[in-house]
Amino acid sequence: MAERLLKEVYLPDIALGDSRVLFCGVEQCIPRTDTLPHIRSHFLMVFIVSGKGIFRNPTATYHLGAGATFCVFPGELVFYKEDAEDPWTYYWIGFSGGEVLQILHRASISPHRPVHIANDIRELEALYASVVSYSTRLDFSVKLKIQSLLYDILYHYARSVASPDALAAISTNCSQHIVCAVDYIKSHYQTELSVAEVARAVGISREYFCMLFKRQFSISPVRYIREYRLKTASMLLLTTRDSIAVIAEKVGFHDYNYFTNQFTRHFGVSPTGYRKAGLDISIKSP
């Protein structure tokens, strides 16, 4: 398997329902020391073939090995890192669509249960490998095949729901304060939201809240709020015809120039350029 291989699949002209495969890939990891938390504007499913590592979302930390899949939900702050001595080899697939969200929930995959443990590793590995293989040629029939493979993968998860006992054995719940804080931010990011306000809402001091948040995700609450707003703005740029000024207001930036500067710094392109590209160009790796 290649040391690092990234394939991206963008399907603007075909979809099943409202679902769309955005990209896929495979990686044999090299232990990294500069791993940072992620916030994404799409779903990401990561299937681990071998090795060990951790996955952390706002509700728990999971210690995952071969056969595990973790799902990242749009707008969710997550952190994942391979083990230094036995790093992961994994496949990933990114996708979007409300219908897919419903399927995930029926398969008992949600932000509170983001991990699945496979009964048959070989079957899932073959499905993910097929997606990567087909992505090298994108004629009409191949695009249909990739879409169908996504549903084959989701079917596998739906038919073999992970038991609560299996998940409990690999997870450690994080502070309830952090869980409530993330929910509060997602509900109030459009307002003049401050870290002090979030801390008051969850009933702890600002200093203690900042300490807990940084311990969990290695970034400050201020940075998370800013990046959550920017990611939400990126989704609105691609899915609505609202003006950039209106989108800036919708996501809590009340200074247009500050918004455009922050957006350009984060994504490496202006909001206008991002919308014109018509693709989530922030996708570089899973």
TrEMBL record:
PROSITE patterns to which the protein is assigned, alphabetical:
HTH_ARAC_FAMILY_1, HTH_ARAC_FAMILY_2
Superkingdom is Bacteria
Secretion signal span: none
Task: Write the record's keywords in alphabetical order, separated by commas.
Answer: DNA-binding, Transcription, Transcription regulation
Claim: Glycoprotein is one of the keywords in the record: no
Q: Which Pfam families match?
A: AraC_binding (PF02311), HTH_18 (PF12833)
Q: Where is the HTH araC/xylS-type domain?
A: 179-277
List the GO molecular function terms.
DNA-binding transcription factor activity; sequence-specific DNA binding
What InterPro entries does the entry give?
Answer: AraC-bd, Homeodomain-like_sf, HTH-like, HTH_AraC, HTH_AraC-typ_CS, Tscrpt_reg_AraC-type_HTH
TM region(s), chain numbering: none
- What Gene3D superfamilies has UniProt attached to this entry? Homeodomain-like (1.10.10.60), Regulatory protein AraC (2.60.120.280)
PANTHER family linked to this entry: ARAC-FAMILY TRANSCRIPTIONAL REGULATOR, MMSAB OPERON REGULATORY PROTEIN
Write the protein's name: AraC family transcriptional regulator
Q: Which organism is it from?
A: Bianquea renquensis
